[in-house]
Amino acid sequence: MQSINMLFLGKGRGLRRLSLMHFSGQWTLLEKQEFEADMRIIKDFVSEHEELGLIQEIEPHLKRLPYESSHWDDAIHGYRESERRDWSLANRSVLARISGSAFKGKVMPHVHILDLAEEGVIKPHVDSVRFCGDTIAGLSLLSDCVMRLVKVSAKESERRVADLLLPRRSLYVMSQVARYQFTHEVLAGDESWFENDRVVKRRRLSVICRNEP
User: From which residue to which does the signal peptide run (predicted)?
Assistant: First the structure.
């Protein structure tokens, strides 16, 4: 796994660093530091082989379901979802790594699977406190995407936005400040840019773990 919140490109003297977070708006240095502590991205959290193993176990259950055009809170469009508690031995090992990295082992037994179609979107929302606690961890499979977080109830002059590049096979861990004080969304294909680079969003599977409310 590569360094949290950083992607390194090139070799030798040509090595350069690309942050996986881009901030815009009225951020202080302290606010950025607090946000980065509570919004981690771990690149290459799973290998290609582990990704394939997860997909092979998830796919037979999802393919029976139609894609939905609306969600109970109108937050998601173009999606299928499921929950799983029982996994193969190999995939239990992956989930145990997520539990240890994000929750120190204290994770809800049911894992949420979200299948977002290529044209699907996740609109700005804050996850309900009825269904999960202070931490959400999501494994991104099949596609890169851009997640945008916007400070809740801020005046336009105090707007704070963080765009996150979530590479395929990365894990994000959203807790505390990022969890409660910011909406989050996955940008639609035609809006999927990170800084000056276009990020091609295809069909995306998310394996999402949570702790108790």
Answer: none
Rounded to whole angstroms, the Cα distance separating 53 from 72 reads 30
Residue with tokens 């990295």: 101
Does residue 15 belong to any structural domain of this protein?
Answer: no
> Strands, DSSP E only, in 88-203?
111-125, 135-141, 145-151, 160-166, 171-175, 182-186, 193-194, 197-198
Q: What is the total count of domains within the chain?
A: 1
Q: Of 170, 165, 169, 171, which Cα lies nearest the Cα of 199? A: 165
Domain containing residue 47: CATH number: 2.60.120.590
Q: Which domain holds residue 120?
A: 6-10+21-210
Does some domain include residue 1? no
- Count CB neighbours of 160 within 10 A: 20
Q: Give pTM, 2 decimals.
A: 0.88
Within-domain flag for 110: yes
> Which residues make beta-bridge pairs with 42?
4, 171
